[in-house]
Amino acid sequence: MVLMMATSSFSFGSWLCTGLVVFASVELQEIFLEGIVGPSSAEGSELLEALVQPLSCEGPGLSRWLALAALAHAVVYRHQGQMLSKTTAFGYPMDIQPPAFAAQVFGTRSKAVSMSTSGLQAPDGRSFFAVYLQSGLEVLREFTIRVQCIVAASRHKGAKALDLSQLQVLEADVLQLAPLMRIAAAGLCGWICLSRDMDDLGKVQREDALSKVIYELCGALQALKRLISLRGLLDFAPPTVRGAQSSFEEAQHSLYQLLMTFEHCGLQQVILPPLYKRMLEDMMRDF
Questions:
Q1: pLDDT in tens for each of the 287 residues of the chain?
Q2: Is 280 exposed, middle or buried (0-12, 13-18, 19+ CB in 10 A)?
Q3: Which of these, 45, 95, 146, 192, is most buried using a 10 Å CB contact count?
């Protein structure tokens, strides 16, 4: 902004230079943030400890945010642009190094690991993936509940259900957790899809992860759809509308990915309520 103000009286070339500087700074910031939450910045044991921290947006609870972000980063953003013919269900090449933490999550032997391992375990004996799944599902449920609080109040009492201060508090609660909800959805979806080809020990299947995540994503989609439909009834702040829309898109994308990956590989065993089942049937027809 300072550069734009300083060059406002100069030529088009000055504006172009300013734009290049701004875009370059954004790119550097993205690289820096990816480095912070990248797989090399944390060990599996540290992530396991962070995943059991209380769900909080300040203090020690922030380590849980970083752990979920690191796991999502490891599985979602690797090997982009590589052109290899043989790939896994989630698009990863079969003949290259698996994602970071794959040995801990799945407990499998890979080319990058010199010995077989059963994976990390929590003090109570749960596997790394079981702890990760519970942590991610808790985020999805809490976010859905926060959205449903606004929806339920407006459904019972209409537009006068909440005054401005009450609505702002509920909106802040939703916006506070929306980024972590998107991270949890993308990360869980990525690891579950990857498990179809890499989870030799069946850790993901034993936790019934596919059914649980699909159930929570359907609930989040229903709640967000109702919230978005209230835009004409309640005076939402613009950031709330954008956050709800981006969360809806991420939940929908994650659900699509699961449906495509497991359409002929376990999706028939998923038991859902009739409302969610009809939702999946409608989505499958859109494929």
A1: 444 444 444 454 544 444 444 344 434 444 444 444 444 445 678 888 889 888 877 766 788 999 999 999 988 754 343 333 344 544 444 445 678 788 878 875 544 444 444 566 777 788 899 999 999 999 999 999 999 998 888 776 665 667 788 888 999 999 999 999 999 999 999 999 999 888 888 889 999 999 999 999 999 999 999 999 988 788 889 999 999 999 999 999 999 999 999 988 878 888 889 999 998 888 877 76
A2: middle
A3: 192
